[in-house]
Specification:
Blueprint (H helix, E strand, L loop, with lengths): L2 E4 L6 H7 L5 E4 L2 E3 L3 E3 L5 E4 L13 H5 L4 E4 L13 E4 L2 E6 L2 E3 L6 E4 L2 E6 L2 E3 L6 E4 L2 E6 L2 E3 L6 E4 L5 E3 L2 E3 L6 E4 L6 E4 L2 E3 L6 E4 L3 E4 L2 E3 L6 E4 L5 E3 L2 E3 L6 E4 L4 E3 L2 E3 L6 E3 L5 E3 L2 E3 L6 E3 L5 E3 L2 E3 L6 E3 L5 E3 L2 E2 L18
Parallel strand pairs: 1-2, 2-5, 3-6, 4-7, 5-8, 6-9, 7-10, 8-11, 9-12, 10-13, 11-14, 12-15, 13-16, 14-17, 15-18, 16-19, 17-20, 18-21, 19-22, 20-23, 21-24, 22-25, 23-26, 24-27, 25-28, 26-29, 27-30, 28-31, 29-32, 30-33, 31-34, 32-35, 33-36, 34-37, 35-38, 36-39
């Protein structure tokens, strides 16, 4: 195993990557690096030395920024006046670890990963890129730890045909489209744990055709729905707060999903809208939503032991038969199938 130093031993990150062999560690010294980096290797690590710089960068202050002890890979114009597409592009890479980088203002994505496996990205930030913070396609076993994806043109995190993604302790904020988008059945096994997903211009999380777990996340203030699951059977939402979306809190267009121990509150639309069948909804607090607390149009759903209060106009709307609704605490009108037949009881 060798340790390669950028600026100490190599002038650019790409030069060090090209020389590295399996087991090598590339230490990138503090400074500003205007380059795109392509990785087609296995078993190498890249480590940014010093604190990560998060903030604006312009040509006139790059010398000052270099003195801050930070590593930044920037997509602004390089020495030849050419803009750069992606920050780090991983092609058929395996067992790659990237830690401690700020990627900013690339034309496309900060990270673009395809046909790669066992990737770890830790303590990085990606902001103000033209499309996505990170784009994954045909990747497997990617882990994102304690990284920020903010103010990118499309999505913070976009995933296609990439199973076994874990994002833990990440912040996905103020992106131009959805905060996180996951698509296709080949993306099964996606897990989000302890993430903040807020103020995105689309949905907080939009998943289509894949299985997803959302655990202990904070989803707040997105322009569209907080969580929208479309054809994602067996997905789970647990111990998660979904609040203050401009539209609905959670829309579950999927079967056999589990929603438990979560807080769904103060959304402009419906708190929890279920069109799927066979979902379990237990031990949640669903309150102060503007389009009713729970709206059921699917069947065979089990709604029990929830506190559903102060929603407008109704706490629970039974818009379909054959749902089990019991032991829920409610405080305003709770209509059965037709809204004219109202049950004013506080506990079912």
């Amino acid at each position: 195993m060798a340790k390669l130093r950028v600026r100490g031993d190599f002038p650019t990150i790409q030069a060090a990557v090209d020389r590295a062999e399996a087991g090598d560690v590339i230490v990138v010294e503090e400074g500003v690096y205007r380059e795109s980096v392509i990785i087609e290797k296995e078993g190498i690590s890249l480590l940014g030395e010093g604190a990560v710089l998060v903030g604006g960068l312009s040509d006139r202050n790059s010398d000052r920024d270099s003195d801050l002890g930070s590593v930044e890979v920037s997509g602004r114009r390089g020495n030849q006046g050419c803009t750069l597409a992606d920050g780090f592009e991983l092609r058929r890479a395996d067992r790659i670890c990237i830690e401690g980088f700020c990627l900013r203002e690339f034309d496309s994505s900060g990270f673009f990963c395809h046909d790669s496996t066992r990737i770890v990205i830790r303590n990085c930030s990606v902001e103000n890129c033209g499309t996505d913070g990170i784009y994954l396609t045909r990747c497997e076993d990617v882990h994102l730890f304690c990284s920020d994806f903010s103010a990118n043109g499309v999505c913070g995190i976009e995933v296609h045909d990439s199973p076994d993604l874990l994002a833990a302790g990440c912040r996905v904020i103020s992106n131009g489209g959805n905060g996180i988008y996951c698509g296709s059945r080949d993306s099964a096994g996606i897990n989000l744990r302890g993430c903040e997903i807020s103020r995105n211009n689309g949905a907080g999380i939009l998943a289509e055709g894949c299985n997803i777990g959302i655990i202990e996340c904070e989803i707040m203030g997105n322009v569209m729905d907080g969580i929208r699951l479309c054809d994602c059977p067996g997905s789970e939402i647990k111990c998660t707060s979904v609040s203050a979306q401009w539209e609905n809190g959670c829309v579950i267009n999927s079967d056999r999903c589990e929603i438990s121990e979560s807080r769904i509150a103060s959304n402009e639309g419906t708190g929890l809208y279920i069109t799927g069948d066979g979902c379990d909804v237990t031990s949640n607090l669903i309150s102060r939503n503007g389009g009713s607390g729970i709206l059921l149009t699917g069947i065979r759903n089990y709604i029990a032991s929830n506190t559903v209060t102060q929603n407008t106009p109704f706490d629970i709307v039974r818009a379909a038969p054959n749902n089990v609704i019991k032991k829920n605490v409610t405080c305003n009108d709770n209509p059965p199938l037709n809204f004219c037949d109202r049950n004013p009881s506080r506990r079912e």
